[in-house]
Prior knowledge:
By secondary structure, the chain is α/β, with parallel strands linked by helices. It is built from ten helices and seven strands. The chain has a single domain (4-239), classed as 3-Layer(aba) Sandwich (Rossmann fold), CATH 3.40.50. It has helices spanning 4-11, 15-28, 45-53, 66-73, 113-120, 136-140, 146-155, 158-169, 189-197, 209-217; strands at 35-39, 58-63, 82-85, 98-104, 123-134, 174-188, 225-239. Strands 3-2-1-4-5-7-6 form a seven-stranded mixed beta sheet. Helix 2 (15-28) crosses helix 3. Bound molecules: S-adenosylmethionine. The site of S-adenosylmethionine has 18 residues, from helix 3.
Amino acid sequence: MYSAEEFNEFYNLFSNYNNDLFKHICTIDRNIRKQILDVACGTGLSTSAIQINYPLSHIDAFDLDKSLIDYAIKLEELKDINFFVHDAKIPNALNGSWDLIVVKSSLHLFFDHSILKGYLNLLNEKGVLCLLETTHTSIDSYPILNNAKNIWKKNIPTERKAELVKEFRNIDGFDFTSSSFGYDVKISSRVLNNAVKNKQISCLWEIADEQIREWMTRPYSKADFVDVFAEFDVFFLKKQ
Ligand SMILES: C[S@@+](CC[C@H](N)C(=O)[O-])C[C@H]1O[C@@H](n2cnc3c(N)ncnc32)[C@H](O)[C@@H]1O
């Protein structure tokens, strides 16, 4: 289970990187995007990076976890965002249509081609579905338990990602592009260890508490900071 404060503290370590990731997206997609939807927005960290890069857009954002949405709603800097609770697995139950639909860091939790295709029906003319997910190279760079990394990677195995790309390349009426964006990010060891201890990264949910406690006591780096390679796949499906 997520705790909004601990979740936000951990993922906030990547706020500069997130801003740069969406800057990268703006360089690929130079269109004005008036209506944007952020799918599975958590506490609004992805939403904030979208807002910074699309300051004139109206942004809707939802998550399944009400406690994360309640946290986001209280943030003064995100007061113009329309946050709500919804299950990403039922895109057809959403009311509206958008110029840009973003699914960031949550694809691995509902990696299903038919669900993703459901979002294509919600795009306006020339609209884009943008899928952003951490690469395996990035996952390998995290100093966390090896079996947690394997669980993370198992959620989007290389071969299933290749199948998705193959299928998305051939959808009538859509252009597909893919790229990746990454660089080293220095993060606080204290915050990372806290996130591991309190299982704020979903791949830790299946790991026994005992194993995590054991990992916490091993002589890991005493450094205040640790470098991780933050890298995302950027998949774009643009309506012709
Ligand atoms: C790693 S967080 C990413 C949050 C945000 N997109 C970001 O990049 O900061 C994954 C999020 O997916 C949400 N989530 C998982 N399953 C979901 C579902 N079926 N519908 C909506 N949100 C879901 C979780 O509650 C969590 O907030």
